[in-house]
Amino acid sequence: MNVTAPPSETTIHPTAVVLPGSELGTGVEIGPYCVIEPGVEVGDGCRLLPHVHLLGRTTLGANCVIGTGAILGGEPQDIEFKGGRTRVEIGKECRIYEHVTVHRATTADKVTSLGERVMMMANSHVGHDACIGNDAVLVNGALVAGHAFVGSGAILSGNAAVHQFCRVGRLTLVGGACMVTRDAPPFSIVTGSYPASWRGPNTVGLRRANFNPNERDAVRKALATVFGPGCNPTKAIEAIREHPSLAVGEIVEFVNTAQRGLCVSPRLP
User: Fold this and answer.
1) Is residue 269 pLDDT above 70, yes or no?
2) For 42-55, how does the pLDDT look when each residue is reduced to its tens digit (9 = 90+)?
3) Which of 9, 70, 167, 186 is most solvent-facing, going by the fewest CB within 10 Å?
């Protein structure tokens, strides 16, 4: 199999606008009609497809691919925003597809951040001051509001939405068109809207993340104890507080730090 090596020199299409004050790494490809504004830093080996617009103090890690029409670092949609080229930080090897938007932070001391190897599919959005963990996937049309948190390896299915200040835990799968208005615990599946409900452990996600059978069993039992039908998470957490599993400890920490309530199973009839 022939493998084409990445270009050693940066190439900029004649129609692209790269303004003074921006920085481009080695082997960067800038496609037609892209606009790169002052304060932007593009890492080595990144590819920008046509009509990409990078604003603010946006930093791209190495080897990211940015799809047609994406706008990264746009002004936050916050009526209290006072202006300024605030920050967006995007890790290496992210894949950002057509017409994605990521808004920069509201103030200089904050940041909108995407981890490494994040995939944002077409028309997905990350709002100001939000944080997306490594290897997270936002499927087409998924929306993350300002100040929200999405943990590493989490998946937001098509047209799912996360309310401002809400959290989605590590390796959690959010169902299609689900509206997360309360914190969705780690290692779980949540579905529905107003309110979204805990449906069970993300067994497939745990297996793919190389949790061994004993770890998976401990997580399943802990989640059922805390989030199952009729449970009160803040009381049920006492039953697993001293569990030796690090993953169970992560569940305990998530519950103890929740500020918007938690997704739980629907009550039994």
Assistant:
1) no
2) 999 999 999 999 99
3) 9
Would you say residue 2 has pLDDT above 50?
no
Residue 235 gets the label, from left (phi > 0), alpha (psi -120 to 50) or beta, of alpha
The answer to whether residue 39 is catalytic is no
Read off φ and ψ for residue 58, nearest 5 degrees: -95, 130
* Catalytic option among 27, 146, 151, 153: 146
Q: Is the pLDDT score of 5 beyond 50?
A: no
Q: Kindly report the CATH class assigned to 11-147.
A: mainly beta
Catalytic residue among 128, 141, 151, 163: 128
Tens digit of each residue's pLDDT (9 = 90 or more) over 204-213: 999 999 999 9
Which runs of E-coded beta strand occur in 5-109? 11-12, 17-18, 23-24, 29-30, 35-36, 41-42, 47-48, 53-54, 57-60, 65-66, 71-74, 87-90, 95-96, 101-103
Do the beta carbons of residue 205 and residue 173 sit within 8 Å?
A: yes
Our CA angle for 113, 12, 42, nearest 5°, is 20
Kindly list the domain boundaries of the chain, sorted by start residue. Answer: 11-147
Amino acid at the residue 200: G
Q: Which of 45, 61, 67, 129 is catalytic?
A: 129
Question: Does residue 23 register a pLDDT over 70?
Answer: yes
Give the number of other CB atoms < 10 A from CB of residue 1.
2
Which residues share a beta bridge with 194? none
Q: pLDDT by residue (tens digit) across 86-137?
A: 999 999 999 999 999 999 999 999 999 999 999 999 999 999 999 999 999 9
Q: How deeply is 249 buried, as exposed, middle or buried, from its count of CB atoms within 10 A (0-12, 13-18, 19+)? A: middle
Q: Catalytic annotation on 129? A: yes
> What is the DSSP code (8-state) at residue 7?
P
Phi, psi of 30 (to 5 degrees): -110, 115
